[in-house]
Inverse folding.
């Protein structure tokens, strides 16, 4: 908006100009500093974003741990969920395989989007039961370790007719386990679809600095040896994400 606004009676000073300048002295110094200095200094801008993400994460009881979809706990960042729906409608995967069902909120969310799109199904894998998970005709649950031979064999038989396959990894976040999941599940992703590694933000990227090596470090190792995937940073466009460097697009 310009410094002046047109009205039926002529023009007047805009709210922005009126609120932020008074004889050239900022009336809101923090906002002035943010726009004039922080936003124009990449390191400062990143520090502010990282600080907010830590505040958001540490406020779990009122933020991500207080999220639900249609009454089912979801425990995801709303910014990431928005990106999920964009991917589903743009790429139209036949099947999404997720590891780490938890309460089933994300599986139900993706299945609901597929209802709107009129296409697709979700196969969700978890090592343990957790109460009554949501029942939906597009969701199939598999009980077992995501890296066990039994689960992989069952998945393989279920995917024979799926030409477009997407994967979401969100179970055990220790590096050794994520390494194995990446090795196994990357093979299931088809060209043009995503392999999403959740919670790559832990271990100081930028949250939960004491976690130890996890998804972020697994992705680094994986990409050094696998040229068929590339990090799609555009999927982090809302700045706040639990999956930094975790949106991997299969390119070949």
């Amino acid at each position: 908006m310009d410094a002046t606004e047109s009205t039926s009676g002529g023009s007047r000073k805009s709210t922005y100009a009126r609120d932020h300048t008074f004889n050239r002295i900022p009336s809101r110094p923090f906002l002035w500093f943010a726009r004039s200095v922080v936003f124009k200094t990449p390191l400062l801008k990143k520090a502010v974003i990282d600080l907010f993400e830590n505040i958001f994460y540490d406020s779990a009881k009122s933020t991500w741990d207080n999220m639900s979809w249609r009454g089912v706990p979801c425990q995801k960042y709303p910014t990431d969920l928005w990106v999920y729906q964009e991917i589903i409608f743009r790429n139209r995967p036949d099947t999404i395989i997720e590891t780490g069902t938890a309460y089933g909120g994300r599986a139900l969310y993706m299945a609901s989007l597929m209802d709107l799109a009129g296409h697709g199904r979700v196969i969700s894998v978890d090592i343990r039961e957790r109460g009554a998970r949501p029942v939906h005709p597009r969701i199939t649950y598999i009980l077992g370790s995501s890296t066990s031979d039994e689960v992989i064999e069952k998945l393989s038989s279920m995917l024979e007719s799926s030409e477009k396959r997407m994967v979401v990894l969100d179970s055990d976040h220790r590096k050794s386990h994520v390494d194995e999941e990446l090795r196994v599940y990357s093979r299931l992703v088809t060209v043009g679809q995503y392999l999403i590694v959740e919670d790559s933000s832990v271990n100081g990227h930028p949250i939960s600095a004491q976690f130890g090596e996890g998804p972020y470090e697994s992705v680094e190792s994986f990409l050094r040896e696998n040229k068929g995937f590339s990090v799609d940073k555009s999927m982090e466009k809302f700045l706040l994400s639990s999956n930094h460097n975790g949106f991997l697009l299969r390119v070949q």
